[in-house]
């Protein structure tokens, strides 16, 4: 019987476009377009620009892969590094609930860069991306909640996700794919400590995961070997970085359960842990026609993971940090009905936002915590200034598979992100997104954003 | 009171050549020449060649830094990656006992590449290297024995060591250096799992550490921020990867205790955990004039760390794996008086070696284990074919500070390594080593191995 790692590697190596249900293909196209918007949204971000500059200075100066935010070319390794840094900073990229893992920001930068370098077809890109999603999500589920308390799963599981996607494009066989996963997993890294001082590390984590995973796959193609059981072995990732890892999760429903299709889109431009409560607050305010001034207090009933990640952020001082402040997110939602990039940028520290923010608290809730991470339930208790106590509840926050975004909503979101960052003109972005919806017909993956400027 | 991380960062930023005792400068020169031999020894190694090819394909094609084993130029980032991969494969690079950390293979590749790119002076290179050693060794001591049971400390602590060295060359101030350590620590990775199948990951760990640490320092110079307490914070390295971390070790004797000078040279070309027993066996054999045929059984009395790392290797199938086989190392020492590269390459699987190998066992020893990791005591009990039971003991294996290598021995070792690998001709290597002994007088660090070929 092959080990769980070996089964996962074989699945990733042997996956074919013909195996994918149509709904999974369509969902992957949705995820790709949604990711592209997030990548363009990284334009103009200081930490993203730092990593993009580093990649440019250390890289090829030219190359077959596109660095999206800098509108330059580079080798696939360094383009993937820059694009992965770019895709996560707006906090608008997708998330898989059960694994608490953001697949797009590590899978697509690596896969697109290599597909461009190889001239792979759009179908190959989609198939490879599904391989990356399926592997990364299962690795995240395997590593479990104990892992996520200290480690940024997108940084750690992300190395294996990127390796699987790139390995698929490089046509690794099952044994080579296992080596690639081994080399990826032994580079897996990313700690939450940076949140405490609002440091820039989240962008470094995604850059690192995409680049290290890509490197692992290229090395495997060249005969470089990795640990055969990097995930579940006695000195592997779980041994070092988890206390509740479950190897059965690595192979859960391989080929029948499509974890890719379980992935959620982000509607608010904030940490996903804030979304359920934000939607529940919106529900209460709409149902009872409340205005922000009506709010005397909001208790959010949350899972422990939300407290772990958001708890340290009490008085955010940067836009990025405020996306991890439950109070700030709910304050923006209460005022504007949506916590988007523009709302954060213009209002995250306004007097009104701060006043509302300080009325919001988090409380651990047994039902919500028990359902997490498979379901992200939103529950709030609102006390109004006239003394009413109101309850709000959503079982699937906006963007979850049962409450998903339409293609028009995804397109509109991408256009909004580009307009906000200035990473592309409205015309450019509209054309790029229009083209990208037809990716399954592309004979070769070319530049996504048109020619160099 | 600054945190331990902040004190360590300030020390690394503020270190000046004038602060260094003469003995530390001389020792650092010794370590540099010894490293250079190990870097050249990586020539011709398959896994090293894979990483060097990857760096070349993804890199600049030209650049200000020297990739030693491929005799090419590249950006400092990718040259550091290739050279760090090269420096560890022969298992001849240095080790600091107390931290179980190999500083040279992560510090010098990063520091030399950046010094070449900047045209830094030899003194700047030496000072920066000491900063890297002092930081990396203390991080290794801090992470402790629990960390080393699962993690390859050279890969993890190595990211911070490389960041400190490069940060010093880039003249980061104390705050920037703290950011660099934060960005390095959040990329720290490297798991022992690969040993179980004799995979190539050790070369990837050093490549990754040097490159990620270098990147962290460049990013900090560009304003990119990192966690302020990546080491001791509640979601930092110790929280995620150690159960016995002691923050006091991060600042132990900063500026008065020179950990750099405590570093040991390797005499045998094998895992350092085998050296104390190897030297103890040699002592017994020399004292009692034993021949290999006289040995009926050898019990090595070892610390737990030796059992953790060497225990899984029972029947090595590759030269590299055999360097982690206590039995193989002692078999070579018994036959040839020294377990060098040539002995491994030609004899690691000979019938005589295998027969002797299977007579060697490891036993946990309370005294040896209690002294470890500060002292690596070697104790063996030899049973001879004529029924005698003999005991051997060394308190400092050859290469330790109290039993060190002379400059002539270091030069000879470097020449042997070059001859073995073919990475340089005897004349080239002699000239390069002769030049390198005068590094403190160099106005600018240039290529170590002469011009491109």
Can I get a quick summary?
2 copies of one chain form a homodimer. By secondary structure, chain A is of the alpha+beta class. The first copy, chain A, has 19 helices and 6 strands.
List keywords for this structure.
homodimer; 453 residues; alpha+beta; 2-methylcitrate dehydratase PrpD; 60s Ribosomal Protein L30, Chain: A; 2 domains; four-stranded mixed sheet; 19 helices
Provide structural commentary.
By secondary structure, chain A is α+β, with helices and mostly antiparallel strands. The first copy, chain A, has two domains: 4-266 and 415-441, 2-methylcitrate dehydratase PrpD, CATH 1.10.4100; 272-398, 2-methylcitrate dehydratase PrpD (60s Ribosomal Protein L30, Chain: A, 2-Layer Sandwich). The first copy, chain A, contains 19 helices and six strands. The first copy, chain A, has helices spanning 4-14, 22-41, 46-58, 76-88, 104-118, 122-150, 153-169, 174-185, 201-221, 237-241, 275-287, 304-310, 319-322, 326-336, 341-347, 351-357, 366-371, 407-421, 426-436, and strands at 65-67, 72-74, 295-302, 360-364, 378-384, 389-394. In chain A, the strands form two sheets. Chain A has a four-stranded mixed beta sheet. Chain A has a two-stranded antiparallel ribbon with strand order 1-2. In chain A, a hairpin with a 4-residue loop joins strand 5 (378-384) and strand 6 (389-394). In chain A, helix 4 (76-88) runs antiparallel to helix 5. The radius of gyration of chain A is 21 Å and the shape is globular. The mean pLDDT of chain A is 96. Chains A and B meet through helix 3, helix 4, helix 8, helix 9 and helix 10 of A and helix 3, helix 4, helix 8, helix 9 and helix 10 of B.
């Amino acid at each position: 019987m092959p080990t769980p790692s070996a089964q996962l590697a074989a699945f990733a190596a042997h996956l074919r476009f013909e195996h994918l249900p149509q709904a999974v293909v369509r969902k992957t196209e949705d995820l790709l377009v949604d990711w592209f918007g997030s990548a363009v949204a990284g334009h103009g971000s200081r930490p993203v620009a730092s990593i993009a500059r580093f990649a440019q200075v250390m890289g090829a100066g030219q190359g077959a892969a596109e660095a999206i935010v800098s509108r330059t070319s580079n080798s696939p390794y360094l383009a993937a590094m820059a694009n992965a840094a770019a895709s996560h900073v707006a906090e608008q990229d997708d998330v898989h609930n059960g694994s608490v893992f953001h697949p797009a920001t590590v899978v697509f930068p690596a896969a697109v860069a290599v597909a461009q370098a190889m001239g792979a077809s759009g179908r190959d890109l989609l198939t490879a991306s599904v391989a990356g999603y399926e592997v990364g999500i299962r690795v995240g589920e395997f590593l479990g909640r104990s892992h996520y308390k200290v480690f940024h799963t997108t940084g750690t599981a992300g190395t294996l996700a990127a390796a699987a996607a790139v390995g698929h494009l490089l046509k690794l066989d099952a044994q080579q794919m296992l080596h690639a996963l081994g080399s990826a997993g032994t580079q897996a890294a990313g700690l939450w400590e940076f949140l405490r001082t609002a440091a820039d590390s989240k962008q470094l984590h995604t850059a690192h995961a995409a680049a290290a995973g890509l490197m692992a796959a290229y090395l495997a193609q060249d005969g470089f070997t990795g640990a055969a059981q990097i995930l579940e072995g006695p000195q592997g990732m779980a041994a070092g970085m988890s206390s509740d890892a479950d190897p059965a999760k690595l192979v859960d429903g391989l080929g029948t359960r499509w974890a890719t299709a379980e992935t959620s889109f982000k509607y608010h431009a904030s940490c996903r842990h804030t979304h359920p409560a934000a939607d529940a607050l919106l529900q209460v305010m709409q149902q009872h026609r409340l205005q922000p001034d009506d709010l005397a207090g909001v208790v959010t009933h949350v899972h422990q993971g939300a407290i772990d990640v958001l708890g340290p952020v009490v008085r955010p001082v940067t836009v990025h940090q405020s996306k991890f402040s439950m109070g700030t997110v709910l304050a923006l939602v209460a005022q504007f009905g949506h916590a988007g990039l523009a709302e954060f940028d213009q209002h995250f520290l306004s007097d009104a936002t701060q006043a509302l923010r300080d009325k919001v608290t988090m409380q651990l809730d047994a039902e919500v915590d028990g359902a997490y991470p498979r379901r992200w339930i939103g529950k709030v208790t609102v006390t109004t200034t006239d003394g009413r106590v109101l309850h709000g509840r959503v079982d699937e926050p906006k963007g979850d598979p049962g409450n998903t975004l339409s293609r028009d909503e995804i397109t509109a979101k991408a256009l909004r992100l580009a307009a906000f960052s200035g990473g592309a003109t409205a015309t450019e972005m509209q054309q790029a997104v229009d083209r990208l919806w037809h990716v399954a017909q592309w004979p070769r993956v070319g530049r996504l954003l048109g020619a160099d400027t």
